């Protein structure tokens, strides 16, 4: 009976764990926040400086790792995606174009984007990527002047359910 209960517990634990798509942990030390997310054989470590009275994360950088054997090795962000990556980039770039169009046609946007070169498609290496338990966020920058900082970024958010087909 004890062995049967142990087997049921192990089976239940495996089933519960396998339903978890991404497991993330955060560690805050002094003015640095480190967030580590693991999805299958992929690990993303995001490090951010905490500034301001509300300790908002800024100046974030990410490192990407793939499990090879028993170890994680450093990879480029584009290496965490499978052969469908081009389709994903089309989806991301279409959303970036929509935001660019919306921002550049506002009153303030007309000034900020007046001398901006035409928008070119972003590649994976040009995007900041971060994971959470239920989504992936792709962040792009328009390289606007400091005075247009509020309009300089766009975030494309894709749910884990929708992005799984693009991940290794």
Mean pLDDT: 85
Give the end-to-end Cα distance, rounded to a whole number of Å. Answer: 40 Å
Supply the helix-strand structural class.
alpha+beta
CATH architecture assignment of the largest domain: Alpha-Beta Complex
Detail the poorly predicted runs: 1-18
Secondary-structure element pattern, one letter each: HEEEEEHHEEEH
How many helices? Answer: 4
Portion in beta strands:
35-45%
Query: How many β-strands, per DSSP?
Result: 8
Count of the domains: 2
Shape: globular
Q: What is the CATH third-level topology name of the largest domain?
A: Actin, Chain A, domain 4
Helix content estimate: 25-40%
User: How would you characterize the largest beta sheet?
Assistant: 5 strands, antiparallel
| Major sheet: arrangement of strands | 1-2-3-4-5
Instruction: Kindly provide the name of the CATH class of the largest domain.
Output: Alpha Beta
Report the C-alpha radius of gyration, rounded.
20 Å
Task: Give structural notes.
The protein has helices at 2-19, 85-104, 107-112, 160-163; strands spanning 23-29, 32-39, 42-51, 56-68, 71-75, 128-131, 135-141, 153-159. It is an alpha+beta fold and 168 residues long. The chain has 2 domains: 2-79, no CATH class; 81-166, Actin, Chain A, domain 4. Strand 3 (42-51) and strand 4 (56-68) form a beta hairpin. The protein starts with a helix and ends in a 5-residue tail after the last helix.
Q: What does this entry show, briefly?
A:
By secondary structure, the chain is an alpha+beta fold.
